[in-house]
Amino acid sequence: MARSGALPKKLQVFVPRMTREESEQEDEDETDEEPEDEEENDGEGGEGDEEGDDHTDKQPNGEAKDIEVPEDIRQVVRLLTNGVPLDDLRLECSSADDLKVLLKFLPLGGSKASSKLRPWDCINSLSLSFEEGCLLDEPDALGYFLPRFPKNITSFELRLPDSDYIPLDSDIRLEVPGFMELPQNFAEKLTSFSISCDWGVQHMLILLEHCANLEVLTLDFLTLSTEWEWTAEQYTALIGGLPQVKLPKLHTLCLRACPPEIIGMLGSLQAPVLVHLDFELDGELDLLGVAEDLLTFLTTESNCAPTLNSLRLAAIKLDALEFCQVLDELPALTHLVLEEVCFGGGDLLQKLDERCRPSHPAGPRSTEWHRREQPKPFLPNLKVLKLIDLVNEGNLDHLVRFIDSREQLYRTQAWRSKLVGSAVGSLKELIVGYHQDLSTSPLDLNSRQRESLKRSGMNLNIFPYRF
């Protein structure tokens, strides 16, 4: 049943599953015409083109022959041919056959007798979701469907069915180079692409092969099936054989539910102008070397570290010192968000505190900062720091000292020469979310800490949350 969103600009549609009898009748009709002849609407009925875009009463070949099509699909066709203008279309498909029927009633170009653009013709953002249980048994399924959508689509969201519903044995999934590909003409027009798929990283990279104009990319691994017991050797072999994907215009990259084992996939992506990097990993898995893979991607493969502006990490386990080494290479970073990140090898906030604290004082009681050896600039352009489930009573003082040390270094001009552009350098906003249950007291600042943070003039937001 079709259901409208914020009309007239958006439409969300659930394409229902046909009955077995309807599907068999549609298959019989499909054999009577070539799929490429989508615009052949006149057929033997010469008056077919004179009556506009009413595809709900006539078949795509123009004949009077009636195919039993669910009323829900007919309603969708009416909306897409005679409804209000649309920018965004979201389709949720319970079977590939159902989508085939819908597209058969919506040929590209519309009626030959009318120059009026249909809502269908104006769509520039498409979300295509194949629901759980949908069987895609044709390797070129996307190659069949996507050319039948409007030509001006630049934003595409694709959710593929679970790996259980693709015809690949689990033993050979690593060897299969890519089960589906995007048509090149469709892929080259995309500026935004979101893929949700648990089939494996090699399939995602194949889908990106022709997406050279992408500016925003989201890869959601849906937490790869626990049945895939891949060994470290298999991952190494897989990543070593992945194709190189060049994304010269990409400025935003988001990873969701990504197992740490395949962070090495970043070595296959080249994104030299990346500005925003957002990782939300599968925190249940623990693997050393994640920070090293991230550093290699930023400094070597894409070489975007000098200009990276925003970094968000969530649900990941890292070594605190190794992560600081990553931050050392991000001088332009203005936004840092850490959510439920578990650090080993020491407390991260203590490491941050030490990074910004002057060493070798002139005397044991000296407080003259200009007489101390100043530390190397560390996150000199940071403006917003958001820490969720990372701060507690034991390390709160380290956080306050880290911020206070930064302010001292700016006031003494120690870091101003390292600032990017005309940035002021001082932290503008601190957001702290801490875990609280019925047995713990609220996280609170003492008078000294409050005074120290007050001097910085930043916006401060400290709030509790419960799991």
Helix content: 10-25%
Helix-strand makeup class: alpha/beta
Overall geometry: elongated
Strand content: 15-25%
Low-confidence region ranges: 1-8, 20-27, 29-66, 169-178, 225-229, 360-366
The helix-strand sequence is: EEHHEHEHEHEHEHEEEEHEEHEEHEHEHE
Structure explained in plain terms:
The chain has 467 residues and is of the alpha/beta class. The chain has twelve helices and 18 strands. Strands 1-2-3-4-5-6-7-9-11-12-14-16-17-18 form a 14-stranded mixed beta sheet. Strands 8-10 form a two-stranded parallel sheet. The protein has a two-stranded parallel sheet with strand order 13-15. Strand 1 and strand 2 (10-15) form a beta hairpin. The longest helix is centred in the last third of the chain and has 16 residues, at 396-411. It is elongated.
Question: What's this model, at a glance?
Answer:
By secondary structure, the chain is α/β, with parallel strands linked by helices. It has helices spanning 20-30, 71-82, 96-104, 141-145, 184-187, 201-207, 232-240, 290-301, 320-328, 348-355, 396-411, 447-456; strands spanning 2-4, 10-15, 88-93, 125-130, 155-159, 192-196, 216-220, 245-246, 252-258, 269-270, 276-281, 310-314, 317-319, 335-339, 342-344, 384-388, 429-435, 459-465.
